[in-house]
Amino acid sequence: MNRKQFVQALGLLLGTVPILTATSQTTAARLPGACVQPPFLFPGSVIGITATSGAVSTDAISAGIQLVRSWGYQVKLGRTIGTRNGYFSGTDEERAADLQDLLDDPQVNAIWCARGGYGLVRIIDQLDWTGFRKHPKWIIGFSDVTVLHCQLHRMGFASIHGQMLAEANTGFVQTKQVLEGRPPLYQTAPLAANKTGIGEGLLVGGNLKLLETQAGTPTDLDTRGKILFIEDVNETLYNIDRMLCNLKRSGKLAELAGLIVGGFGLAKGETAANFGRSVSDMVLEHTSGYAYPVCFDFAVGHQPANWPLKCGVPHKLEVTGRIVRLVELNDAQPANQVVLVRGND
């Protein structure tokens, strides 16, 4: 009996207990062009924690670790937690080695980044993905982790754009539900600035600055036919405008299936009145020649409401005058969905 036959036989013996293997896929993951979704998590799964960029103390993530363990998961703490080398959590070599260890470990089912900041671009080209390809795992994080999301998308693997472990709060349960295979449905209130329409495509995106600066590099993100989401923080309006101009000039905005604009916290003292236009004004200007739907104030980014988004997975974006809805295209029953709703807050 080979390994595959053994797993199938064991599944029959255990009845309703799901056996998750590296080839476990949802319907969404099997659709043409969709990324491979790593196996979903279950009690006893191992989550590796690493600081790929800025330094973070053990105390800063203690609440997150406690929460993860309360879900029934085990934790493998990376060597970069609680260490420092100037701004960073370690030298480039130390940070790359720590992440590499988690990527290679077949017992690790997911990697949760402790915090962002800056630093992944310094180590991304040092990583060997051979072990990861054999044993795919979910990678979770946002902001600087956009670099990893883009790398994984280029390789054909799905990932989760979501809160860092150092930001542990009650909203983390949504990430748990997504990690365990429940397809998300996101609903938010309509805004006058939205451009109505319906689009379907793989969901991709992240931090606007990182998406812009990766153009022409090995982690350049192909946005054609995709639903793109963008967010940023502590930026001036003229710099946001410049980044949007660069995305447009490089063709990143031309063939989208939809555009989702998340949180855009401005630099101190920055106002739309002083610059003469708001973020929504600039987005609509740079996308005026395109017919796809655009929505604003989505719950993603450097803000309390930062929903987990499955990158590389097919979604449908519906923007109407009554509601904004983003739903994963999946064969799961509606009762199994994770419904996330945001009103006018």
UniProtKB/TrEMBL annotation:
InterPro entries: Carboxypeptidase_A_C_sf, Class_I_gatase-like, LdcA_N, Peptidase_S66_N, Peptidase_S66C, S66_fam. Residues 47-162 form the LD-carboxypeptidase N-terminal domain. The active site is at S143, E231, H302. Residues 1-28 form the signal peptide. SUPFAM superfamilies: Class I glutamine amidotransferase-like, LD-carboxypeptidase A C-terminal domain-like. GO terms for biological process: proteolysis. It comes from the Bacteria. Belongs to the peptidase S66 family. This is Muramoyltetrapeptide carboxypeptidase.
